Structures are given as structure tokens and as C-alpha cells.
């Protein structure tokens, strides 16, 4: 069995059409059919069910397609990593994050990590919580930073930052940190919230804050971006509640009041796939455990 045959099989399995697959691979259709037959003979199993109208994967073919696709991706990553090492770079990390993680945790972490471990390429992508989980399960990310309470069994989760929430008000709002007594003062205001689908556990924590103060919020807008929330607050469409770390990095006419009386805290977690093999990731995991992990 050759790498080329596996690639031919993967493309044919994706297209489920020999002529289209052959065109995509820049070979003749008879040549592709011959390569697939040889692969089936070498493996001693049938990969496709063929008739005049359609091509379908057999159950064994479906299984091999899934496994080959995953492992071919890992092989590409290994080769890419080796090329980086050959060019003098120690490796590459693909990092997913929610917006609030970029305000404090990630810049400090990556600067300190690079200082200790040397030249590393960081590929950063802002993604919501569920997108990060999906990418980690498919191993198209190395590590993510999320606000979730539970993740699938194949992922490891380590808490790295616990923080209180802040009230966000327009800059000229009459309530400030000196005269703030509680959310009861703001029970008639409209609130702008992170979308519940963005992180249900995070949304529930915010709703518990309202319960603690004994009010039912008027929710006027929901969004997934902190910058949108802050722009809406600045333009007096409402007020909001966000994690404390989000008060840094924005130059807008808004102000923050920490809700220190609330028992609710939000936790930022680092998550990664237990099966992901990347030497740089292993170093980062150890570094996070030693320097950032919140010990219970």
C-alpha cells in the first residue's frame, strides 16, 4: 500500500464519482479504477460498491475513509513541523481563543513561553467556544481558550483564570463606582448580552447575577462580540455585564464597575486534545500547569 493509493482513495471517497475524482487527481479514469482495485486487493476487502448509476462506500470503506483522513492530516502536520525545525524554528502552535482571552492571558503567556522555549510560530484564530471544541476534536487546532464547564472526554481542560464580572455603562451614566449600590439601581435599564448560544454556561452565570440582586433583566440585544457590546453601550442602546478582563484594550467612552458583591465568577480554561502529538504543545501544556493552572 502506497501513500499515493491512499490519496486516490480519499478523493474518490469524497467525490463518490470515478470520473470527477480522476479529473481532480489529474489521472485517467481507468488508471484511477486500477489503483483502487489494487488497493482493495492488497487490503483484501471491498472499499466501494459500484453499479452503473452510483458509487458508494462499503462499511469498511467508510471506516478507512474516516481513519485515513484523520491520520493523513496528522502526517501533513508532522511534515510541516519537521520543515519548521529544519529552518531553525522549534515548531508551530495553532491556537483558538475567545475574545476576552486576548486581552490578558494569551499575550502574556505567549511572550513568556517564547522567551523560555525559543523561536516558535503562533497561528492565532478567534473562535467561539463550540468552534474551538470542534477544531480540537478534528485536531485542526492544538490548543484553545474557552469559557466552558464541560468538554468531551477526549479533551483535557485546565482552568487558567478566574475573575469577577463587571458592569459596563456609558461614560456619562449617572451611576459610577462611588454611588453604585447594586443592580437594583439599574433594573429599568436595557441590557446587552452575549448570545446564549455562544456559551450557555457563561450566560447562565450572568443570569444568576441578576437572581442574586433580585431583578429580571430587560434584554434588548444579544451578540457574540465584545466590541459590538461596547459600541452599543457607548451609543446608549443599553448596559452590559462582562468578565473583568474585557475592560482592558478598548479606547471607548464607557466605564466599568466591578461586581465584587456577587458570588459568581467566570473561569477561562485552556483545552487540548489528549491524543494530539506536537512537541511544542507538550511544552506549552507543562508550562500552563506550572505557571497558570488554578489549583483547587
Automatic annotation (TrEMBL):
PROSITE patterns: HTH_LYSR. One of its GO terms (molecular function) is DNA-binding transcription factor activity. Keywords: DNA-binding, Transcription, Transcription regulation. GO terms for cellular component: protein-DNA complex. The keyword Methyltransferase does not apply. InterPro entries: LysR_HTH_N, LysR_subst-bd, WH-like_DNA-bd_sf, WH_DNA-bd_sf. It holds the Pfam family LysR_substrate. Transmembrane segments: none annotated. Residues 1-58 form the HTH lysR-type domain. Belongs to the LysR transcriptional regulatory family. This is LysR family transcriptional regulator. It comes from Christiangramia oceanisediminis.
Amino acid at each position: 500500500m502506497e501513500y499515493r493509493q491512499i490519496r486516490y482513495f480519499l478523493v474518490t471517497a469524497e467525490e463518490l464519482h470515478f470520473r470527477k475524482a480522476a479529473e481532480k487527481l489529474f489521472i485517467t479514469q481507468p488508471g484511477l479504477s486500477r489503483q483502487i482495485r489494487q488497493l482493495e486487493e492488497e487490503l483484501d476487502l471491498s472499499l466501494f460498491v459500484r453499479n452503473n448509476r452510483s458509487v458508494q462506500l462499503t462499511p469498511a470503506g467508510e471506516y478507512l475513509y474516516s481513519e485515513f483522513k484523520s491520520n493523513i492530516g496528522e502526517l501533513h502536520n508532522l511534515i510541516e513541523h519537521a520543515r519548521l525545525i529544519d529552518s531553525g524554528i522549534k515548531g508551530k502552535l495553532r491556537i483558538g481563543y475567545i475574545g476576552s482571552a486576548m486581552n490578558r492571558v494569551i499575550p502574556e503567556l505567549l511572550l513568556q513561553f517564547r522567551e523560555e522555549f525559543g523561536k516558535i510560530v503562533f497561528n492565532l484564530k478567534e473562535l467561539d467556544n463550540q468552534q474551538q471544541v470542534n477544531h480540537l476534536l478534528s485536531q485542526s487546532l492544538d490548543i484553545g481558550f474557552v469559557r466552558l464547564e464541560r468538554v468531551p472526554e477526549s479533551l483535557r481542560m485546565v482552568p487558567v483564570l478566574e475573575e469577577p464580572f463587571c458592569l459596563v455603562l456609558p461614560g456619562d451614566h449617572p451611576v459610577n463606582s462611588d454611588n453604585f449600590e447594586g443592580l437594583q439601581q439599574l433594573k429599568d435599564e436595557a441590557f446587552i448580552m452575549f448570545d446564549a448560544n455562544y456559551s450557555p454556561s457563561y450566560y447562565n452565570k450572568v443570569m444568576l447575577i441578576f437572581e442574586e440582586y433580585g431583578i429580571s433583566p430587560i434584554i434588548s440585544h444579544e451578540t457574540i462580540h465584545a466590541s459590538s457590546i461596547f459600541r452599543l453601550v457607548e451609543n446608549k442602546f443599553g448596559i452590559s455585564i462582562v468578565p473583568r478582563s474585557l475592560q482592558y484594550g478598548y479606547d471607548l467612552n464607557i466605564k466599568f464597575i466591578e461586581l465584587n458583591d456577587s458570588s459568581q465568577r467566570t473561569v477561562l480554561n485552556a483545552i487540548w486534545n489528549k491524543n494530539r502529538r506536537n512537541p511544542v504543545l507538550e511544552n506549552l501544556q507543562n508550562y500552563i500547569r506550572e505557571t497558570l493552572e488554578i489549583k483547587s
